[in-house]
Amino acid sequence: MKWMLFSPEIFYLLAALCFLLLSMTGRLHRRRDHHIALALAVAGVAVCVASLQLEGSLFSETYKIDLFSQVFKLLLSVGLALVVGICSELRGIQERYEHEVYLLLFPCTLATMLLVSSIHWLGVYVSLELSSYSLYILVALRKDWTQGIEAGLKYFLVGVFASAMMLFGMVILYGTTGTLDVKQLAQILPGLMSHAAVVVGLLLALSGFFFKLAVFPFHFWAADVYQGAAHQIAAYIATVSKVAAIAVLVRMVAMLGGSSDYFVHVLAVLSVVSMTVGNLAAIAQKDLKRLLAYSTVAHAGYVLIGILSMNPGGYAGAIFYAMAILVMKFTVFLVLVKVAWDGTNLEVDGLAGLHRRSPLLAMALMVALFSLAGLPPTVGFTGKFLIFTAAMERGHFALVLIAMINVVISLYYYLLMLRAAYLLEPQEQCSPLSLSAPIKLLAGALVVVMVAAGIFPRYLMDLARNAAQGLM
Amino acid sequence: MSFLIGTEAIAHVAFWIVVGLTFGGAVIAVFPRNIIYNVLGLVMALSGVAGLYLYLGSFFIALMQLLIYVGAICISIVFAIMLSRPLHLEVPKRSVPKVAMAAGASAIFFAAVVGVIFKSNWVPAPEQSGDWSVVTIGHLLLTRYDLVFEVISLVLLVAIIGAIVTAGYSRRFSS
Amino acid sequence: MVTLNSYLTLSAVLFSIGAVGVFTQRNALIMYMCIELMLNAVNLTFIAFSRYLNDLGGHVFVFMIMTVAAAEAAVGLAIIMALFRNKETVNVDEINLSKG
Hints:
The structure holds 3 protein chains of 3 kinds. Chain A has helices at residues 7-25, 30-50, 67-85, 98-117, 121-140, 145-177, 182-188, 196-205, 207-213, 221-228, 231-256, 261-283, 288-309, 312-339, 354-357, 359-373, 379-393, 397-422, 437-455, 458-469; strands at 56-58, 63-65. In chain A, 75% of the residues lie in helices and 1% in strands. Chain A has a two-stranded antiparallel ribbon. By secondary structure, chain A is mainly alpha-helical. By secondary structure, chain B is an all-alpha fold. Chain B folds into 2 domains: 1-89, Four Helix Bundle (Hemerythrin (Met), subunit A), CATH 1.20.120.1200; 133-175. Chain B has helices spanning 7-30, 35-56, 59-84, 96-119, 134-142, 146-173. Chain C has a single domain, classed as Orthogonal Bundle (Helix Hairpins), CATH 1.10.287. At the A-C interface, helix 5 and helix 6 of A face helix 1, helix 2 and helix 3 of C.
């Protein structure tokens, strides 16, 4: 039963087809569609949980299924289910195109799943493009169309440029090694790491994922795209898309990174610049989504530290951090979607009076922000701790020091957000936010997860360690 | 002896003509500020690349290049220009520092790549035989690369849906 | 005989010219065309290496890049046209594209 290995992907393909058929019926039943999407997304999580222990390879050894890929598939499916969970009112999207949102979200998630398992450059490239194209369109579907289309265009141009760079890197690697198969590459490359061509090729080949993760030279789309996209779509980009990019970077660096000092140095520079640029730019932002975008850039820098440590601890830290990012960023976006319920953009000051309008959301925001800032006892602290200790083991003291300084800088703007939510008085009277019971439950659960995973991280850490073990 | 030009010499001249076409086309595609010239330059450059594929012996890829790039993409760019862009609009001036910076950055990149090209010694395959026919490529697509082949159909589906959605969008909601 | 290095140099030239265009042009459509040029440089390199290494993988890759390029044209041109028609501009400066 070899196709069982492929079951999560098949499930998401069928779910996408289901929405293709629904969108052809033409009639819009918002509640029904949302319920179907939610049911399918939750079922997808179940399928991914069921296939967690599968192992094997498919398609002439170009598609690898191991604990690493299955853990990430689970994360991606959870991310999709969470995002679909806040899609009950898609006020930021043109009404006519609500079918298409689900129709594009499912193939996009499918593409990210293909990404984490592909170990052939061709598969990596094609699935990256599939996920990117769905996102370009999703971003452009904003109700305020000029904003959406502008953001979509920017995302498109930067993305296509990054993929041209990536292809150039792949072709250099192909020329030096004669193979496109990452597994064969992993056997050939260690002996060639002193060649300039290999290092340049490898860095360029990873640039497509630097773009997805919004790492420094490819970070400048993030703010405009987050601002221009509907909140739910921005949440998707900030969670699922990032997790997939981290997965590919971890796998490729673990398989191909070898022991080249140049490669590590370049990654370290990218990491430092991303952190610093992200945090400094975030301080100046008024718009909440722009601020979150720059904080994402900074977090990409932290993740890179884990990856460039190139030891099992570093990879496990990066995997753990991917889990943390998923929960933390999603919680902030949940608050954003509920506070800006009419689908318009929200300024940081727009959070004013949140603790009175909805104490639960205010608390969720507080925990998420503490977690993003890396304060104990939250999951963000544990993630940073794992990454920094792994980097210390490899002697990257300066890097960890710079990261620490950055964490302190980031504290400033996270506290500004918190101040807006707890201390600022709203200018006009705001009615309390009415939340549906499932959303209340979800917010409560997220808070519990963030704190519990911070205090008792053992289970998740073991999962991350085991997943990282399989990579080496 | 001048009338006894060998076929090799003719091939050589043809090669340099194709290279000139590609290079000239690329320059025309990138630098003028009248968009019609840019498209024509792109057509030239892409046809030149098709010629290079022929020279490399990949007849099928050359044909695909002409069909997809020149025949489909360039034509749809021309349609995009005709359908939408008000040609009379003022084209903005370039800022000199920006151009200089871009040229500098690209020159550094180019120098780095050329350095890499000439410093590496590329190892050729031991024998230059092999089957380059379309049949073999098709066979590979449906055996070794079948996953990619399936995913690409999904890419096309998503792109078509996306194009319909975004293109239909503006007309209905712009006014 | 034309050596591998001349093909590689030519495609590096094409790639760099395309990159210059992406950075200097303000018109979204021309930027897109420059990126197509860069992709073509990659394709050329793939075919050259594929011949040199006697490996069909490069041909298959080019096949896929071309198909993706067709999809890219559909998505990209649709977005660019939606922008054109609604805003009467194609200049990325006016749509704050170059703003960091």
